[in-house]
Amino acid sequence: MQIDQTEFIWLDEHHEVSMEELVDLTGLSLEVLQHLLEIGALVANNQAEVDMATSELRFSSHSIVSIRTLSRLKADFELEQNSLGLMLVFLERIRKLELQLRGLEKP
Length: 107
Description:
This protein is mainly α.
């Protein structure tokens, strides 16, 4: 019997991941993630306070879900890199609206 090891990540507002972890967890290449960062579709938590060339960017763990979805959509529909930024913005907006809706539904 073989046991697969699985790593769990708690997705909350306090957990952050590095760019390398984002590449490992999402299936998108470093080049694609850097392109999303350059066009402003992907925003690092510490982007304003670091030098892009020398410091490590940190991202909210919530971005993993949207970027994994984006990775699946890219593969399924053969999306071009130029459309990924807009798609990521829409996915993040949907996620935030769903969170707001859940908050309104609670008594």
